[in-house]
Amino acid sequence: MRSALVTFTVFAAGVPGFAQSPTLFPPSPQQNTAFRPVVIPAPGAGEPGRLPGNISAAQPLPRQTPASPMPNPMNAQGPSDWTGPRTNSGFKLPQTENLQKIDGSAIIVRRYANVTQIWSGSKLLKDLGNSGADAEEIVKAMRELRPTEWGGIGEPGRAIVEYGLTKGEPFSPTYAPKELLNIDMKTVRAEQVRGAWVTRDDQTIVLNFGARKDDAEQAAAVVQKYGFNRLGRVGTFQFFYAQGGTAPVPPPGSTALLTALQEQSLTRTGIDVPGVGFVGERVVLDPKRIEIRKERGEYSVVHGTDVIAHCGASEWAARDTLKLMQELRFTEFCRFNADITFFLVNGQAPNRVPFGIQSSRFDLAALKVRNSTGGQWGIYEGNGRIVFTVGSEKEAEQLLKLLKHYRFDQTCQVGMSSRTGLKFLGKSSR
User: Fold this and answer.
1) In terms of domains, do 313 and 401 share one?
2) What distance in Å separates the CA atoms of residue 360 and residue 188, rounded to the nearest whole number?
3) Cis ω before 16 (30° cut-off from 0)
4) 388 beta partners
5) CB-count burial class (<10 Å; 0-12, 13-18, 19+) for 253
6) Are 187 and 210 within one domain?
7) 293 neighbors 157 (Cβ within 8 angstroms)
8) Residue 258 sits in which domain range?
9) In terms of domains, do 261 and 294 share one?
10) Residues 83, 22: Cα–Cα separation, whole Å
11) Would strands 18-20 and 36-37 be described as parallel, antiparallel, or unpaired?
12) Which residues on neighbouring strands pair with residue 151, listed in sequence order?
């Protein structure tokens, strides 16, 4: 019975296969140290995945851990998938790399009040905000990559995945990250799954970039250019690196089932609208990751790398936004486009708007799509006022179907304006 449990745990972790790493990485491919996969939360903004079911979101699958890192015969199949630096200087990336020169030996943690940051000399590498519990471990992992250059993929200051290079080459570290995921460089690619763009291989989803197709393609290309065959994770910090050793091979016939389970457990997808398909972006909210962050004198309410609301210099608008999200217990944050957002509770639109929230109602039954000015399209309340402006007729039709599906009948606002607060769709209780 114990043997069966261990076997299932290893390959269930292929959804995706983040592994609890041994005390040290194997210094050479011949050692063949075992990699023991562990499941962690389903992919959100670049997050690894978890099997659905009755498994707690805060707990990994049960696993058997040997007292010492003995070789695992499951991992002893085939030669190592990495044998040393292998940068392909002729490989063309879809985007220009966001690289900066740094001194890897000078990477340190700095704390200011409740803010934790990671610096290299005079260069800010990461702003962890209020989530600085893993800062020392992150610094240790970064230093072990011996970087002379540091790069990231994602929005500026909010990279989904990062990587270090030593004079243009990947460096194989001897320090093990808390969690790791094997990457098959032969099959790694960008692909759309349930409306979200992911970087994946034939076995697992490696990273989830949501609506950002270009970043998913860039991540796959960076893996291929530098020969990165591992993704490490320490807290919210995710990074590519290269390491010798063989990866677990799943049992015959198991890949299709595990892939389907993993795709269903994604926490970042498109918004599924009947008659339309997937539009925009939907993110499953983890209450523990929602916080107020202050950067350069401006306040934001964030969920991991997602900014829920920009509140400018108004701390009270940020606090009101956070209080609203906590009181109504929103479970999903949805963004139709840059200007139109809304929340769901277990897939349904909340049926009340708290007292005191600014709102503007519209007659859902009277909404019509019409050509607006300057080549734009709008949704009008009959022949009267314009309620929403979008860029195309197709986008206007999609938005109208979304409004009718969730029965939204008002726009709501926290703060003095949508630029310094939160603006979202709401639904009356009637």
Assistant:
1) yes
2) 47
3) yes
4) 379
5) exposed
6) yes
7) no
8) 2-60+71-265
9) no
10) 20
11) antiparallel
12) 99, 163
Task: Determine, yes or no, domain membership for 66.
Answer: no
Model confidence over 238-292: pLDDT tens digits? 999 998 766 666 666 667 777 888 888 899 999 999 999 999 999 999 998 898 9
Query: What pLDDT is recorded for position 246?
Result: 62
Q: Nearest-CA neighbor of 400 among 420, 415, 379?
A: 379
Q: Is 272 helix (H, G, I), strand (E, B) or coil?
A: strand
Q: How high is the pLDDT of residue 269?
A: 96
Task: Let me know whether 353 and 400 are in one domain.
Answer: yes
Copy the structure tokens of residue 401: 């179907």
Count the neighbouring beta carbons within 10 Å of the beta carbon of residue 193: 20
Domain check: are 55 and 80 in the same one? yes
User: At 148, which amino acid appears?
Assistant: T
What b/e readout covers 346-355, taking b as 16+ CB neighbours within 10 angstroms? Answer: eeebbeebee
- Outline where 109-240 has alpha helix (H): 135-144, 213-226
Task: Tokens for 427, please give them.
Answer: 């639904």
> Cα–Cα distance between 227 and 171 in angstroms, integer?
11
Instruction: Show which of 247, 265, 283 is a domain's final residue.
Output: 265
How much is the pLDDT for 13? Answer: 34
Does residue 259 sit within a domain? yes
If one counts the domains in the chain, the total is 2
DSSP state of 73: G
**Residue 177 to residues 21, 130, 144, 209, 242, Cα–Cα distance (Å):** 7, 22, 10, 22, 12
Domain contains 76: yes
Regarding whether 363 and 248 lie in a shared domain, the answer is no
Whether 353 contacts 409, CB under 8 Å? no
How far apart are alpha carbons 369 and 380 in whole angstroms? 6
pLDDT under 50 in the chain at which residues? 1-17, 19-43, 48-80
Domain limit, last residue, from 207, 232, 265: 265
Task: Report pLDDT digits (tens) over 172-224.
Answer: 887 778 788 899 988 999 999 999 999 999 888 999 999 999 999 999 999 99
One-letter amino acid for residue 4 of the chain = A
Helix (H) or strand (E) holding 139: helix 135-144
